Amino acid sequence: MANKSWNVLVTGGAGYIGSHTVLELLQANFEVVVIDNFSNAYKGNDNIKPECLLRVEKLTNKTVTFIQCDVTNWNELKDVFKKHEFHSVIHFAALKAVGESCEKPLEYYKTNVCGTLNLLSVMRDFNVKRFIYSSSATVYGIPEKLPLVENMKTGDCTNPYGKTKYMVEEVLKDLCTSDKEWSVISLRYFNPVGAHSSGQIGEDPNGVPNNLMPYIAQVSVGKREFLYVYGNDYDTHDGTGVRDYIHITDLAVGHVKAMIYQKIRNSTGFKVFNLGTGKGYSVLEVIRAFEKASGQKIPYKIVERRTGDISASYADASLANKELNWQATKNIDDMCLDTWKWQQNNPDGYKC
Amino acid sequence: MANKSWNVLVTGGAGYIGSHTVLELLQANFEVVVIDNFSNAYKGNDNIKPECLLRVEKLTNKTVTFIQCDVTNWNELKDVFKKHEFHSVIHFAALKAVGESCEKPLEYYKTNVCGTLNLLSVMRDFNVKRFIYSSSATVYGIPEKLPLVENMKTGDCTNPYGKTKYMVEEVLKDLCTSDKEWSVISLRYFNPVGAHSSGQIGEDPNGVPNNLMPYIAQVSVGKREFLYVYGNDYDTHDGTGVRDYIHITDLAVGHVKAMIYQKIRNSTGFKVFNLGTGKGYSVLEVIRAFEKASGQKIPYKIVERRTGDISASYADASLANKELNWQATKNIDDMCLDTWKWQQNNPDGYKC
Known about the structure:
Chains A, B: Residues 9-337 form the NAD(P)-binding domain. Chains A, B: Its cofactor is NAD(+). Chains A, B: Homodimer. Chains A, B: One of its GO terms (molecular function) is UDP-N-acetylglucosamine 4-epimerase activity. The structure is a homodimer of 352-residue chains. With 352 residues, chain A is of the alpha/beta class. Chain A has a single domain (6-343), classed as NAD(P)-binding Rossmann-like Domain (Rossmann fold), CATH 3.40.50.720. In chain A, 39% of the residues lie in helices and 16% in strands. The first copy, chain A, is built from 11 helices and 13 strands. Chain A has helices at residues 16-27, 51-60, 74-83, 98-103, 105-125, 160-178, 212-220, 248-265, 283-294, 318-324, 332-345; strands at residues 7-11, 31-36, 65-68, 88-91, 130-136, 183-189, 191-193, 227-230, 242-243, 245-247, 269-275, 281-282, 300-303. The first copy, chain A, has a 7-stranded parallel sheet with strand order 3-2-1-4-5-6-11, with helices on both faces. In chain A, strands 7-10 form a two-stranded parallel ribbon. Chain A has a two-stranded parallel sheet with strand order 8-13. In chain A, helix 3 (74-83) runs parallel beside helix 5 (105-125), helix 5 (105-125) runs parallel beside helix 6 (160-178) and helix 7 runs parallel beside helix 9 (283-294). The longest helix of chain A has 21 residues, at 105-125.
């Protein structure tokens, strides 16, 4: 299906979603160049290539080219494009913590919006016009109804992080309207969790995890005493927030499928796909599933709602199935089991 | 009212609205530093200071400091802030042609959004946190009802230009939420027209004018044969589009009032004000008013609607009246008369 000479640039390829996607790309025989600025990735002992990519190379028995580069830096980016010829770009590089985005909005807008604009300009200058964008279900704002379908209204996001994702989608739409040569796919992720089934690569958050699953994982190995559950008075079956969790490997494969779609169909224009399982799980259900997978008790405390959190969100994922021939294959038990495996093997993430 | 030692940075101060605002600032005894990248301003014979600012200096008998600088350039901007201490920043520098924004969206997002983010970051680094932003009535998108009031919904803009104005307002809101020291006023302009009553400074569009009044002005002096009227089947009293035209001097004074408000009230947070007259005039009414003011016949042709144009837009300008003690003082006849005076004196703009 894939082709040896299809060269892909992956920005932010040393991050959580990036590294898992690189693994799937290599396994599908794509040539991969990764750029990353190490803002949220561990350098490791190699001192050149991030630890997660060394592990990806070991797992795949293939090599990936790595260049330290910040997408907001015009000159650095241009040098990457001068050195390498790309057929496609998958753009993960971004800041992603919702809470932090409220404290540091300028940093979020600069990195996520201006970084993307910078990348798109350089791509245009080098006539590389296939782009896969790392979007988010947060672009739907407060859902009017569920499940979320791609043609529903976007915007009215509740935090700067979500707004950056929304703004970039608007930029991409306008870009595709102005220049019919562009082929852009925006993938709206629901809640990526889990780790590669090898237990060798996974999520390695800096500091206190912002998301449920890595927090549970740290509680499970005794790194944190309690899990905080933010609100049990939501309008859901057990009162806790409901989300559409998706296994990171399913998500990574979604990117490969999207790229193959662009390549084989020679598609142009702006397209959007939800990447989710279509099933919602409450916080309490995730806790129970993790306890089952790990055999560990996860102590938790119910605390107040967090501002900006919505009660429930899950995808209608049928469009990706129909168009990209993609669907999630792993369930909540797989997600918990692989998280647990990764966390046990790597209690301090890549630093151990 | 004003104070000699109040130093104002005006970005894009060699443009149409910028130059008229600089004139009013100087007359109110503010110290003014202008930066501009000459992307839409005539350099003139001086070769250092733009022609419009030389005329502003002559009219006011005061001097303005000028520095050639691009707001998208971090190092250039930082140098300006190193050399000068500012109390307030008024930010005009932006691309502003709706049609062009559809053809070159990346340029518009980079200049208008990333340029502003760059400026805000440098301001923060130098602890300058009073900001007046050049916004637009286009942020209201397609009006649900008229007149437009500041607390109405924004977004759903019909072109990239409008989206850049909307996005920056969102950034400014988030910035003021994250850091309570900021004092930000966003001024939503309706349709600025006319020229300084001296006939010495005015609008000097590059190439074919994008807006009605400068186009009429060029027809009036024989530079163009016909005016094109885009659609006469709108749901308005004569079928042509209705807009709230505001005299450029009224608009300029609005900025001075906003700055004085920030200074005297020591206000913080994000505030928005419409700057308009509150009255709507149709295209045909503007043509008639211009014919009356100039004594010239304005030949016109009715052609198809332009995509993205809305039928009618006018302001509720009572908030600016109440809070800023500002209101428009000049009517449509003044606007046409001053445009005509400027155009007669300067048939080729500043180049003559």
